Each structure stands twice: as structure tokens, then as C-alpha cells.
User: Fold HNH endonuclease signature motif containing protein from Micromonospora sp. HUAS YX12.
Amino acid sequence: MAEGRPAVPAQLRRDLLVEAGHRCAIPTCRQPTPLQLEHIEDWAKVQRHEFANMIVLCANCHARKTAGQIDRKSLHQYKANLAVLNNRYGEVERRVLELFATSGHLNGYVQFPGTFDILLMYLLRDGLLTRVADHGMQVEIMGVPQAVRYTLTDTGRTFVQRWRNAEVVEPAADSEDS
Assistant:
């Protein structure tokens, strides 16, 4: 911490860490440690700690921001996209999106037990994810498939690419029954 700069209040630190899931906020990084709090608009300019102007970065991404490799506009967009994802999607759904974003395999699939539809409900409802028909042998117990494959739709691939590239991700329109 720079000399003469007040410490970030504990509640603000906690709120920022929770917002980022205790990981670096850069979607292609997401390192869990070491984490640092960064002012999007430089401290020298704003002279205050505010939630809207701060973001959690790992030490590597913090150094990249300081070196000018990650610009303020990108950081503002990463921050805005966190709000969209955190307010719309659950933890499992965010991890599925993160997996596609970090792997680069946007045409791949993830496989879960058949009971996972409820945990992926908003990704499915928003048209970002779809079930893949399995033409192989399928085991069902009491009518529930034991393994289901899911893949990104075209809309889902666009969403993940935009999120990964620090572009605006639009919140999905709420359906009438949500």
C-alpha cells in the first residue's frame, strides 16, 4: 500500500472479493491467489476507495494493468460483466461459462448427471447452453439419464467470446416465468 493511502475498509474488501468469487476478475485468468485490489481509475486521480471503481486482480494481471497491457476501459467492462453474470447465473452456471472461456473450446461439451438441468436452468432458458442428443448407449435410472452432454449454442459462444474479450455482455431478457 502506498504511503499515506488509507487501508481499504474490511467490508469493501470482502464485497469486492465476493463479487469476483475470490478469484482474479479477468475471465481468462481467474487465478485464486495472490489477489490484490486495484483501482480502475487510478488512486492518484480519485483519492478514495469505492466499490464501483475497484476490481480484484491477481498479482500477474495487476502488473499487466500497471504496465498498460490491460486498459481502464477493459477493467470497467470486466467489472460490469461481473454484475451481469453474478446477478443472473448461479455458481455452477458461471463455472461452466468460465470453463468454456478459459479452455478456448467453444464447440466442445461438458457432461453432467441428468439431474443437473436444474443447476443449469438459466443458461438453458436463456439459450446459451443446450443438451446434446446422445446417440450412444444411455443408462437411465428411474427415467433419469446418468450422463447428459451440454454444449454452447451460437448465442452462448458469442456471449463467452464477448465476456472473454472484455466486451459488453447483455443480460438475458427475463422470461415471463422466471
Remarks:
- Strands lie at 35-39, 54-58, 109-112, 129-132, 140-141, 144-145, 148-152.
